[in-house]
Amino acid sequence: MKRKELILFMIVGTGTNSNPQELGFKLLAKKLYSTITKIYPNYVVFFASSKSKQTINYIEEQFEDEGDEFVEGQDYQIVPIEAIDDFSACFEIFESKIWEFDFQNDKDCKIIMDYTSGTKTMSAAMACCGLFYSKDLISVGGDRSTGEVSAGTEVINYQNLYKIYDKFALLRTRYNFNAKRYRTCIDVLDYIVDLNIHKDSFSNLCKSYYAWDNMDFEEAYDYLKNVDIKQREFMDIKDDLKKNLKALGTIVNSRSVNLKNCYILASLINNSIGKAEEYRYDDAIARLYRALELAAQIRLTSYNIKSSDVDVSILSDNNVSDEFIEELKMTEEDGKIRIGLAKDYLLLNELNDDLGKYYVENEKKIKNMTIKRNNSILAHGLESRSKEDFDEFLEVVIDMARKLDKGMNKFLNETKFAKFDLKLELNNL
Fold first, then answer.
1. Cα(115)–Cα(159) distance, rounded to whole angstroms?
2. CA–CA separation, 24 vs 97, rounded Å?
3. Tens digits of per-residue pLDDT, 116-142?
């Protein structure tokens, strides 16, 4: 396999503090020469101020003394850098050269960045730039008994940055998780190599929430059961995860149909709120419409009535008016009476139920909202809904849900998706 063309970036200082300027240039040149000959790059990029360019002349002399050549334009180039104490200016200059060799060059290059020399600001800027663009970083160490690395003792230290990259990956995962980009989280986690990070549990968490966001409760529960919430990565959300696990467990395992359905309703409402937080108001309102419909269906179940197959004998036993029953019979098709949202609530009103009364009292308002939903691009029309449309609809749905079951506030709390505290210090993770 053909070796990549190796490019060495070096920042050039102005000599050593303990020596006269000319001698300082020569000593620094000797150290830089030592690094170059150890790395053996195809090309060197020096970042130097006008004052420090003299050092590079002495590097050329070092090559000549060894019977070799080091020619500007052929073997190296000098990139002027005068704002040696301006972090942003230094960073941008280093960055521009990375772009030049990585993206504007036809050759396949590998860049190594030596941040040893130069001012502290230059070194910091190069180290950060290398970290940002995932370049190999090196520093030169050796015998420092005199306070500086003694010539002839130089050792090149390659900096192992995988733990830092893993920290950044973990932080990115937390941000993406809060933004409900669960698939992106899973992709980012695949790059983490630090065994101290419990990425399997994190991956299960993301898969659980992805499934839950798509209303696949069984799969969400199975994945969430395999999250070790005692681990430090989850310390700021562990209480919420316990609530979520309880809610999903109830949906999947509870023998109480009403309790199960109430948790599903709460989950659907929270799901709609999540879509609204992503500014997907048409999507959010579509879920609210289903939640409003589900609330009526849950209440009708308590009367042993199914919206998808209404038994008129049950209606008669519950003193529903003959006129209303006849009206329902007119919709019979294939031997079944199927009713939608409005008729669900009107039937509840006939049953003298609180939900039905609430609907009738607010019928005009609710009909206006459902018309907007029907005209939405995600229903039957081409219009887009607004935050105001969503907020108005949400208020009605939550009112209806609370009338459905007095425990609805608890159900809503336990089905609310956990979110990480992004203010936590990264080193605490």
1. 11
2. 27
3. 888 899 999 999 999 999 999 998 775
